[in-house]
Amino acid sequence: MASSEERVTYNPCQGFGCHEHCILEVHSRDGKIVRTQRAPLPSPAPGPRICSKGIMSAKIPYTHDRLLKPLKRIGERGSGQWEEISWDQAFEEIGAKLNAITEQYGSHATILNTFWCGVPGCDRSTNFDLAMRFLNSFGATRLEGPSIDMSTILATLTDLNGIISNNRYLLNECNDHIIIWASNPIGFTRPGETSHMFMDARERGCKITHISNLFDVTSAKVDHWVPVKSGTDAALALAMAKTIVDENLQNDEALVKRTTAAYLVREDNGRYLHASDVVEGGSPAEYVYVDVDTGEICFAGRHVAKAAVGAIGSSVATDSIGATSGGVATEAEQSEEERLKGYAASDVYGDHTPDLRASVEVNGIACRTVFLLLIDHLEGYTPEFQEGVTGVPAETCRELAREYATVPTTMFIYDGLRYANATQTARAIYLLVYLTGQMGAKGATILPSPLDYYPTTQLNINPLWYPDENIHRADQVPWVDVIDSFSNPDAPQQYKALINPYANPILNWPNKDMWYNQVLPNLDLFVAVDIRMSDTCKYADYVLPETTTYERWEVLPGPNECIIMCEPAIEPVGESRDIAQIFAGLAKATGVGDLFGDKSLEFWAKFKISLPGTSGQYLQAPLTAEEDPEHAGELADVTVERLEKAKFLHLDVAEEQFDNYRGITFDTPSGKVEFYNENFLPLGKAFADFEPALVNDEVAREKYPLQFYPGRHKYFMQSQFTNIPELVSLATATQSGLALNPVEAAARGLKDGDEVEVVNQRGVIKTTLRLREDIAPGIAHMWYSFNEDKYPGSSCPQHLMVSQNTKEVQSAQMGAITTAFAQTMASFGVPRSASFFVENAAPEIIWDALCEVRKAGE
Questions:
Q1: Cα 99–506–731 angle (5° rounding)?
Q2: CA dist 84 → 71, 87, 90, 575 (Å)
Q3: Of 105, 578, 825, 847, which alpha carbon lies 20 to 30 A from 29's?
Q4: What are the pLDDT digits (tens) for 769-784?
Q5: CB atoms within 10 A of CB 476
Q6: Domains of the chain, each with CATH number or no CATH
Q7: Is the pTM value of this prediction over 0.85?
């Protein structure tokens, strides 16, 4: 690359893991980045955006803590004593140690961290693909990471038996009402397009309601803020559900056609009544219902129709999609009015109409419908009860329920329910969507973990992940099993090495003590790959410098409905290498180089485009006028050659935005929504329920009366960007230290600027007090993105947080869900190493810690 060359490239923001997935137009001159701006990608409104992080991205390759050469530890772990070594020496020594560990303990003794949240090596990057390739070449154990932000995933696994996210561009269809629940998407956690889509909706006259425990940026921008006490959201949702059924506001048609609400349940054991319970030779797979007009006992088989789009882990056969056995109209054959009302009559009912409120005796077995059982379940969840729990006035609860049931409303939930009861809370919120028939309706749906890409844009990554036919060579186990093995010499598998090419777990995960006291002392080898000297790198034995997103090749499908060829904007700084070079070196040193080869990252990125996509067809994009003026607009396969010339292409996606919940078949035994899940009867969780969070423990609050509420700052992405001085200045100007409501401070004799100690059973943080009216009483708030160096002689915020992935937070329900999911994946032939997660710990405990605040030195 000539030193005087000026170039424009399109690169993913270094904070790509924030899930806005922004692509930047990067200008470089004389081999150095001089400016970043939003890329001119064709996309749905509001089009590509850029936040403060993206604007500052040009500084990332040149930060003061940039890693420039391979480092070898020469002092104690964490001492900061290093020597610079060559890449050849690094590969030779790391390879020798990995081989020795493998010889004694097997290849599974090496753990590879693939938990990519917060870094550009996310699920769709070639970096991640090559990490999986090395994992499967070597036969290591995959560390998926801490199960966080899983509440909506686990809720859909419970109710729908599939992981179903949704498409954020559906916000463009919202004209009546949006409820934002436990999220802060306007100008904060999703500062790119998502913020703009909310504000555009409000400009169109759409009302926005925000339900949250803090008055934040989103609260300030909406029409109605509903403050709720931390960890109590399920009580509000269930009281709203009770109001809806008490006032007969539910959508009976949707409940009958899309859920099991009309199916009979045995009162003797709580299980669904099946045909085999009623008639000799009856099918155990057929459900029983009562005809509302005749009282006749009828049987319903598995509902098979249009499947949920983009469901992960669905076993619905592709040849059954759109099946019409029984004369069911497919979605394409239905009128818009029919589809929005809940679809045409289901094939499982024929000419019968089920009775939602049937209570009968069948063959001496007392039975009632799921709907009647739900009414009983909701009996105690009155608006008055929830007021005492949540602080939301009973009448506000009723008004919110009535409005939700009668006005087309999109429910927006985005990973803000970080409490041990989050899955049940998400199920309670989903229940509102089922009851009102607003699941998949145009302008009124549910947006859990909204994505920005159409399902058909996924490239075929299997040939990258699995270099030979042995796709079961690698493994994945719950992290708690790894921890247990450290103290059990008789455990069948010992874990001795950790390679960390992604994330910064010692800073980002709420488990510093676990790392210091349990993990690090038991590792014979710890290798970190990063672009900067992070907290995690400080404790490694070897640190390998990687290229930033601006120094490497990538092909990314999805952002703004496009596919983008990302070329290096600049040459690698120092001796940094891209992940293809790093894994190729490790593979060669460990004897599996023939499965990895010396192919470049450019080769692997382009290789993905050369394969048919996951649909079996090549991705397609309309020809542009620049490509072919005569045939502009006609579809053509996406090829390497087209992308090399155009740099980005808008993919062929449906004109109407897809909604994963417009499908009417789910991968449950019934094929319907099973918000009554009999598998959880032993746990007493067949319906969504309110479980007090750890912060609601009144006994614990006697000693630690405040909720310790650590958050990630909008100017950072996890621990990314905390080395940009301008962003640090903005962040600390907003808040530095600990924030308390003035009422709480006065009760403790504290004033603004005091040096204080934040204390609980896990540690003591020394910091400065800041008073903020927008912090609710009962909450002690801090940011936790900063390196541990910011807290000299003190604990860090992560010390005070509840440690995830430990036996103390294991959950019977989570264990049941994750075990069933793992078994389902195995039945499909999916390797354990490719499963999304296998943890059985309560996944949402980031905000479930208590503390007390006192003046320093007292």
A1: 145
A2: 5, 10, 10, 11
A3: 578
A4: 999 999 999 999 998 8
A5: 24
A6: 6-62 (2.20.25.90), 71-147+464-650 (3.40.50.740), 152-250+380-451 (3.40.228.10), 253-377+659-681 (no CATH), 703-806+847-855 (2.40.40.20)
A7: yes
